[in-house]
Write a structure and sequence with these properties.
Layout lengths: L10 H12 L2 H8 L3 H15 L4 E4 L2 E4 L1 H24 L9 E6 L2 H18 L3 E6 L6 H6 L5 E5 L7 E9 L1 E6 L11 H6 L1 E5 L10 H6 L6 E6 L2 H9 L4 E5 H8 L4 E5 L7 E8 L6 H24 L1
Parallel strand pairs: 3-4, 3-5, 8-9, 8-10
Antiparallel strand pairs: 1-2, 5-12, 6-12, 7-10, 7-11
Length: 312
């Protein structure tokens, strides 16, 4: 079928290639830095140009039609050729980016990671927006594969498939108490720690103490957990107005001492540091924009840990 040259938008063939490679709209949108409605609209235009469905949905995948299978090799060859040609003269300028970066993280890592990252982006890419999204740990791979998140920052965990990761930092635990607490100014030993009530942060009211295995190894029973909160800032406010203690990541604890009448103490037992990692889908490895985002996230995390080290 002959397609009038005046009606051809070469960008549409990038969409055709991306949908074919990823087998769906969401993966193509992620690769092309477009919204899913934009990809769907482009696919509709392609169907009109070709006079063919091009892809039909079967379950969760978009399966190519016979016409697509017949022409896709030539389409990809031309798309790759144009990309190579443009790359030879391309100069990547973050200042021209106009996009939203979706970062998957939990509240404590959000508080630690976002401030330095936003400061870096504001200086060099003022039109880049950041959206923090909550990604359940058992959905990390799905969220990255489907483009629900561009990056996920979380504790070290096992990942499979085409998920890549890099170590950002190691985080230790510390204890917060209110200024004027009966233990303020004293060395917080294990006996004193266990005589106090504690505030615990958890999303599930039945969740056991995550440090119970540590206490068991020391021959201790359970801590007296008097209050369970969903967020660390709420927990810190409870601690600031009572005599309970709050055990939490040191970097976040340090920031809370500047916002609330709290003092920071060392946890009176050695606990292995928590590895903080950044994860992304392997399809984004060669994307220069995504590479730049990853570099900035790493630099932001490094800056946080450097400042904390200098403070101590």
């Amino acid at each position: 079928m002959a397609i009038p040259a005046s009606r051809i938008d070469l960008n549409l063939f990038r969409v055709m290639d991306a949908v074919y490679e990823h087998g769906g709209i969401s993966g193509a949108a992620r690769q092309l830095h477009l919204s899913q409605p934009a990809v769907s609209h482009a696919l509709a235009r392609l169907r009109q140009l070709w006079g063919d469905a091009l892809f039909v949905r079967q379950g969760n995948r978009m399966v190519p039609t016979e016409l697509t299978r017949r022409v896709i090799v030539d389409v990809q060859a031309h798309v790759r050729g144009l990309q190579t040609l443009m790359a030879q003269a391309e100069t990547f300028d973050p200042a021209t980016l106009d996009m939203t970066i979706k970062l998957g993280m939990r509240d404590v890592l959000e508080a630690i990671t976002l401030p330095p990252l936003i400061a870096l982006l504001s200086a060099v890419a003022p039109h880049v927006r950041v959206a923090s999204v909550r990604v359940p740990r058992d959905e990390l791979e799905r969220s990255l594969t489907q483009g629900d998140a561009d990056l996920v920052i979380d504790r070290q965990r096992r990942v499979a498939g085409r998920i890549n990761g890099v170590h950002l930092a190691d985080e230790t635990l510390a204890v917060l108490m209110r200024k004027g607490h009966p233990l303020h100014g004293r060395v917080l030993d294990l006996d004193a720690y266990f005589t106090q009530q504690h505030v615990m942060v958890t999303m599930r009211p039945e969740q056991p103490d995550p440090l119970q295995s540590v206490w068991s190894l020391l021959g201790r029973g359970e801590r007296d957990i008097s209050v369970r909160c969903q967020h660390y800032f709420s927990a810190a406010n409870v601690v600031a107005q009572g005599d309970a203690l709050l055990t939490l990541p040191r970097t976040f604890a340090q920031g809370l001492t500047g916002a609330l009448p709290l003092v920071l103490c060392d946890l009176p037992v050695a606990v292995p540091a928590m590895g903080i990692w950044m994860y992304w889908h392997a399809d984004r490895d060669g994307d220069p924009v995504h590479q730049w985002i990853r570099r900035n996230a790493i630099e932001g995390a490094s800056k946080v840990m450097h400042v904390l080290h200098d403070f101590e």
